[in-house]
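Because discrete structure vocabularies remain unfamiliar, we turn briefly to a single example record, giving the amino acid sequence and backbone structure tokens:
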Amino acid sequence: MHDRHPRPTARRVDTGLDRLVADDFALLAGRKVGVVSNPTGVDAQYRHLVDLMHASGKVNVVAVFGAEHGFRGSAQDGGSEGTSVDRRTGITVYDAYEASGARWEQLLAAAGADTVVFDIQDVGVRFYTYIWTMYVSMVAAARLGLRYVVLDRPNPIGGTAYGPMLTAPYASAVGLKAIVQQHGMTVGELARYFNAEFLPAEAGRPVELEVVTVRGWERTMFAADIDLPWVMPSPNMPTPDTALVYPGTGLFEGVASITDGRGTTRPFELIGGLATDFDHRWCDRLNDRDLPGVRFREAYFVPAVAGQHPPMLNRLCAGVEIKVVDRAAYDPIRTAVAMLVEARRYPAFAWRADSYDPVRPYWVDKLTGSDRLRTMIDAGAEVDEVVGAWAGELAAFELRRRPYLLY
């Protein structure tokens, strides 16, 4: 293994990639490998999976596939980098963002792959799209009779599940199948879940799946508790602190009048609307609620990126900065519901509606998996009522996922 310089109190953790390298890539010997990865697919010395495989001379990497944001991670949300040739290795990098199952089959067949390797750091949220890239590529691999290998990584926000279940009418690119909003699983565990629960119906059979497990991680651990390097999984996920709040504040993508903080140094931690419309009372009311594990700082900021909220670009916004003071007690989705309930008091509050989908125009419905949260908040429901509405489906998911957990 590689030398490290961990924080004194951090737990030593080896990822699936670390274990694959330690085993001299024996698992992939003699295989034609297609790699699904992005900048997060690195070892403890920040060396990338594709570079390590190529340099070893022991793995035949026939193609690389980029998800949302691209293989190099340069594209913003909803974007990709196109197809190109990697300068370091000469390997073709295919743009696979939002590729259908049929397109994945074409790409894998054209590359001549007999094995797909997935190594991307997820952040544990249903609407973070890398897990759906994994799912669709698993379906394609199953249909083609290919082998699928997941190099597992810890869930940076722990192993607890929270939030509502996706319902079939609201399936989209930010949620293809029925899992809860904060799933509390690693990508390896999710792959096992997908393979047993969904692939037999969609692909006609499970894929030949192997998960190279993490060593040293436990479900109660967060990114701050372990010694793994943090590489931004996407341009607006700069730190583990961002990942911690994202399961909840990601919902503000679905509010037209409030920015999620893109274009600041604290995306998803700074939340606010135009200072002409919102004020200090939002922060005061939230702190008066004494929500577990979190405090709010009155904040003013000027977003430098339009993101989903063009009216806020380069304009003064007023709102809050979320400060998590107890990770174990903090429920990011319940916290976000409280933020939405209080924000709804302002006359300027408006949900984002997209004209391209007249049947399901509200983006927050796709993010939460149904129209329930939006309609309940509009009707004046309080936080406990909104959160209580999904208690049964969350408990059922926790039972259903249990056989697939690895840690």
